[in-house]
Automatic annotation (TrEMBL):
InterPro entries: PHP_domain, Pol/histidinol_Pase-like. SUPFAM superfamilies: PHP domain-like (SSF89550). It holds the Pfam family PHP_C. This is PHP domain-containing protein. CDD domains: PHP_HisPPase. PANTHER family: EXONUCLEASE, POLYMERASE_HISTIDINOL PHOSPHATASE N-TERMINAL DOMAIN-CONTAINING PROTEIN. One of its GO terms (molecular function) is 5'-3' DNA exonuclease activity. The lineage of its organism: Archaea, Nitrososphaerota, Nitrososphaeria, Nitrososphaerales, Nitrososphaeraceae.
Amino acid sequence: MAAQLEAVLAREIDVLFVTNHNTLDGYRQILEYQANHAKFQKITIYPAEEVTIDTGGHVLAYGIHKTIRPGMTLGETLDEIKRQGAVSCAAHPFAVSNGIREKALLCDMIESFNSNNVDRFSNIVASKFAHDNSMPEVAGSDSHVLTTLGKCINTVEAEENSLDSVLEAMLHRKVKMACREYASHDELYEHAYYIIQSSRELLLRHALERHSRFYWVVKWALDSYLGDYKSPMWRSVAAFSLYLTKRVSEKVNMKGHSPHVFTNRQWVKLIKMSLLP
């Protein structure tokens, strides 16, 4: 917690929404740590959550007071956000695998810039969509590693620094993107390591249940990667994966290919699409 809050101070951020995936635990933990360290008292920390809906898409819920259960439909999720008096935002809506695309229009706001969308096409389309539909825009650091915290900063013109006032200002378009920076390739690789490390048991269970013949191959690959993800072999795999992601994003977001390959997680088709001219 100390390192994260030190980074917040270094970036001169005075208000912070903590948006862990499908939980408010991170918010509660950082609030508890802050309460015991006077150095960080001037930082205002507000609750939020990045909710995974039934399609795998992500919706940000700013200002909730109770965890929103993942796996609900978009409509159910938005209803619960509204019931809690919070503000909804479509997270990285045109990202390769976990955006809600045009359904972002149902949210209060749209994240039109995401630091991890280094394919850039996802952000270009999101920005155009926001402008075409006159939606309030925010930028998101989507930070899972320390060095990306504060890559994006938004300013909110609230009457006072209170949660209700900040949410009211967000709903009334009094929010502007003040800083937008892309994550570096090294930061993306570190991000991927964090995600895979935290998902190891889930991935192994999925392999055992769905692809039992390849379980030991998957286990070897995971353990090899987690043991030395900076090795030349795994860096090459990561770089190639990033290249394929950019190719798929360009074809779907810029050249009119069907986005259903994202929704249905048709990975074989995604790989073929990325490799073909």
